[in-house]
Specification:
This protein has 384 residues and is of the alpha/beta class. It is built from 7 helices and 25 strands. The structure holds flavin-adenine dinucleotide (FAD).
Length: 384
C-alpha cells in the first residue's frame, strides 16, 4: 500500500459508503473525511420506487450506522483544485487530501410540475400524494423507475397512464422480445400505455403530447433519466463527458490521486472492447465503490482494471426482470429458456457470436447461468 494519510470521499451514498468501508477493510488507518450533500444516514435508493412507496420504512444501507469517520453531513463540495489537492465546500471551507474518491452519483432530469424520484424526501412526498385522493396518475418515462411507480400506483388502486417516447418500454436495455412482453405486462396490469410519443409540456391538471393529445392528470411523475453530478468539477481540469472520465482502474484520467465510482463514473470496459460506459445500477456502485478505494490505496501502477459485468433487477406487476451485461451492444438476441407466453423466459444477447448481455424474466437461475457465461467470455453456442 502506498503512503496516503488523508482520504476524502465526496458523496455519502452507496458508492461513497462502500469506498469508506473498503478503505478500512484494506487496512488504511489514516484520516477519512466523508462529504455528503444529504443529511440522512446513507440509504438504499431501489426501495424508493418500490417498498417505501407502498409503506415500508427500512431503507438504510448495511453498515451505514457504523460510520465513525469524520462525516460532513449536509455539506456540498463546490470546487476541486487537483494541483493544490484542495476541495472547497459550500460554506467556503477548504479540505486538503492525499487521495480523493468522487462518488457524487446522478440527479434526475426534471420536468416542470412533475414529481421526480431520487431521494428519500422525493419518495415520501410521492407516497403522500399517492394517498391524497388523486384518481389518476400519469407517469412520464417507462424506464425502471417509471415502470415501478406505475406498478405501485396500480397496486394502490389508482388509474395509471404510462407515457414513453419509445416503441416499447425499456427497449434499449431489454431488446425486442422482453420489451414487447413488458408492454403487454403493463397492459395486463391495468396500465394505459401510450408509446412512441413525446411529452411537450406538463400543465396544471394535464399532460400535453407532441401529437396534440392532452391527457388529464391529477398527479404527474417523471422518470426521464438522470444527469451525473459533475458541475462541481467544472474548471478542475478533470475530463468530464456525461460523467467523470476515468481509466479502467477508475483513476481519473491523468491523476494518480483521484478515483471515481458509481453512477458518476464513465470508464473503458475491457470486456466490451474498451467502449466507455457509465452504469446506473446498484450493483455497479456497490462493487465500484470498493474497487476504486482499493485501487486508490494501491496506486495506478499496481491497480486492477474494473471489469465487473453490470447487472440489474426490477419488479413490476409481480414479475421480476433481471439483466446482465450490456444487451444494447448485441447484433443478435436468442431466447434460450422458456417463452414470453408463459411469463418466464431468458434471452441471450451476442455480438459476432460472443455473449454480451442477458435478460431474464422470472428466470433467476437462467440469468445466473448466463451471467456466468458472459463473465467467462463464452459464446452464444455455449448457452443454447
Ligand atoms: C427510485 C430509484 C430506484 C432504483 N432502483 C434500482 C433497482 O431496482 N436496481 C438497481 O440496480 N438500481 C436501482 N437504482 C439505481 C441505484 O440506486 C443507483 O445506481 C445508486 O444509487 C448509485 O449510487 P451512487 O453512490 O453512485 O450515487 P447516488 O446514489 O446518486 O449518491 C450520490 C450522493 O452524492 C451526493 N452528492 C452529489 N453531489 C455532491 C456534492 N457536490 N457534494 C457532496 N455530496 C454530493 C448526493 O446527494 C448523493 O447522496 C434506483 C435509483 C432510484 C433513484
Amino acid at each position: 500500500m502506498r503512503n496516503l494519510n488523508k482520504i476524502t470521499v465526496v458523496g455519502a451514498s452507496l458508492a461513497g459508503l462502500r469506498a469508506v468501508q473498503s478503505l478500512r477493510q484494506e487496512g488504511f488507518d489514516g484520516e477519512i473525511t466523508l462529504v455528503g450533500a444529504e443529511t440522512h444516514l446513507p440509504y438504499n435508493r431501489p426501495p424508493l420506487s418500490k417498498g417505501l412507496l407502498r409503506g415500508d420504512e427500512d431503507v438504510l444501507l448495511p453498515g451505514a450506522g457504523e460510520l465513525d469517520d469524520s462525516w460532513l453531513r449536509g455539506r456540498t463540495a463546490v470546487h476541486l483544485d487537483p494541483a493544490s489537492r484542495t476541495l472547497t465546500l459550500d460554506d467556503g471551507a477548504e479540505l486538503g487530501y492525499d487521495g480523493l474518491v468522487i462518488a457524487t452519483g446522478a440527479r434526475p432530469r426534471r420536468m416542470d410540475a412533475a414529481h421526480t424520484l431520487r431521494t428519500l424526501e422525493d419518495s415520501l412526498a410521492l407516497r403522500a400524494e399517492l394517498r391524497s385522493g388523486h384518481e389518476h396518475v400519469v407517469v412520464i418515462g417507462a424506464g425502471f423507475v417509471g415502470g415501478e411507480v406505475a406498478s405501485t400506483a396500480r397496486e394502490l388502486g389508482l388509474k395509471v397512464t404510462l407515457i414513453d417516447s419509445g416503441r416499447y418500454p425499456m427497449h434499449a436495455g431489454l431488446g425486442d422480445v422482453a420489451a414487447a412482453w413488458l408492454a403487454g405486462l403493463h397492459e395486463r396490469g391495468g396500465v394505459e400505455l401510450v408509446s412512441g410519443v413525446r411529452v411537450s409540456a406538463v400543465e396544471d391538471g394535464r399532460v400535453l403530447l407532441a401529437d396534440g393529445r392532452a391527457i388529464p392528470a391529477g398527479l404527474v411523475v417523471a422518470g426521464v433519466g438522470v444527469v451525473p453530478n459533475t458541475s462541481w468539477l467544472d474548471g478542475s481540469g478533470l475530463a468530464l463527458d456525461d460523467g467523470v472520465l476515468v481509466e479502467d482502474t477508475l483513476f481519473a484520467r491523468g491523476s494518480a490521486r483521484i478515483v471515481a465510482a458509481g453512477d458518476v463514473a464513465r470508464w473503458p470496459h475491457s470486456r466490451y472492447g474498451g467502449a466507455t460506459v457509465r452504469v446506473e445500477h446498484w450493483s455497479n456502485a456497490n462493487e465500484q465503490g470498493a474497487a476504486a478505494a482499493r485501487n486508490l490505496l494501491l496506486g495506478p501502477e499496481e491497480s486492477e482494471p474494473f471489469t465487473g459485468v453490470p447487472s440489474f433487477a426490477t419488479s413490476v406487476h409481480g414479475s421480476r426482470i433481471q439483466t446482465a451485461g450490456l444487451p444494447h451492444l448485441a447484433d443478435t438476441a436468442t431466447v434460450v429458456a422458456g417463452t414470453p407466453e408463459e411469463d418466464r423466459f431468458a434471452v441471450a444477447f451476442s455480438l459476432g457470436g460472443e455473449l454480451v448481455g442477458a435478460v431474464g424474466v422470472n428466470a433467476p437461475k437462467d440469468l445466473i447461468r448466463l451471467k456466468r457465461a458472459i463473465t467467462a467470455g463464452q459464446s452464444i453456442y455455449d448457452v443454447q
